[in-house]
Give the backbone structure.
Amino acid sequence: MACQGQTDDRYWAFVGPFGGTTGATVLRSVLEQANKIGDPLAITLNFCAPLQHGAFDLDVREVRTNRSTQHWAVELSQKGAGIAVSASVVLAVRRESWSHQSAAAPDMPSPEDLLQLVQPRSVPWVDRYSFRFACGQPAGPNDQSKSARSARSEVWISDREPRPIDALSLVSMSDAFFGRIFLVRGLICPFGTVSMTVYFHVSANELLQEEGHAIFGVADAHVFHRSYADQTGELWSPNGRLLATTQQIAYFKL
Amino acid sequence: MACQGQTDDRYWAFVGPFGGTTGATVLRSVLEQANKIGDPLAITLNFCAPLQHGAFDLDVREVRTNRSTQHWAVELSQKGAGIAVSASVVLAVRRESWSHQSAAAPDMPSPEDLLQLVQPRSVPWVDRYSFRFACGQPAGPNDQSKSARSARSEVWISDREPRPIDALSLVSMSDAFFGRIFLVRGLICPFGTVSMTVYFHVSANELLQEEGHAIFGVADAHVFHRSYADQTGELWSPNGRLLATTQQIAYFKL
């Protein structure tokens, strides 16, 4: 079943809407399907071209349904402008099994002990979230050293208008870590996410039972090379449960 | 342009062909297109259903071509059996830029100092590679403790019949780390990769200039929960260059 939507200027980024909300919109277009089964397990978003202000169409196609998994393909396009996002979504009916969190939870300082990021007015989407950095806050424009600094950030992220954490917000927050290039070089340069994947590690019901409206995010990168850089991300609940992991590859011009 | 192929029994896994070679085949179907631009940047493979022995078709569709990136969608299917793999491939013309490897290379013991894994005869694909584990070798069937062990492996991987490392072998090797569940629990259980993504961090030309036919792989996992577990992987060249990173989410029954 096809879906329609339109961009929201409050979530605008540099040359198009913030990819996180676009990703959440794609996921929602699948979750709205009458014949969907299970909960989000994985989503991959390929950002093919910037969206323009205005309406868009989502073509939502069921690729295959198995006993406990379901595969979807979604293409987001605008009239006369071609495909802007090509995505795949995997849903799963998650059955009980042996459970083990092999990753150690990071130390999480109390958000009250951290300063809230003061937002640059030129990038609207940033103002839709509250960021409190424990480390790795993107530097201001006067801090331009050519030597590389750490690519790691640890940060509390919550919606400015409080909203329970669901799979949609996890997708959106997965793209809210700021380009690692801004951090390691201490400057803002042309940047855009090319492809992003999110894996969900809890069911929708388990997510509902988590308390609070914030996640503690850990972001890092491996390589910056020939105009592309990767980013890894972990989204932790306040009580030390890993809700989602994400990775993306992004373009930068420097 | 559509492509055809057929499975190879030498690369058989449990209930279908080894996902790594299927992924390499998908990538190759894009690289064979006359109008492709640039080198592989990202590939996501959604394994929808096991392939049967025999012929398959690849439907290869150009989604969007920009100045320096190109997006492709590939569906692999078998007659009468529906779609087995749904994939996206991003190619990029990689321009010179600032370069920085923020991830530290792991210590790599000389492969000659490590024992070669003795292959279980029941899983043919394993015999197509040489594995020399520095740590995290999957345990044998007599080592079944219910407590969890580390999910981390460090291992030299090379094709049994030596072959230069290219983007195709990086995709295949990205799926060659063995299920993390086998390692943390020390047993073999039903297991299957559901979705896998690989990011390439060097151009095809740079890859050609790398010496040797082996990569040093580092694999780990964050969470095992309700029948699904993730896996992260790094593929290093012998001289400490990060060639590719990968992540996957896999089903397990335990």
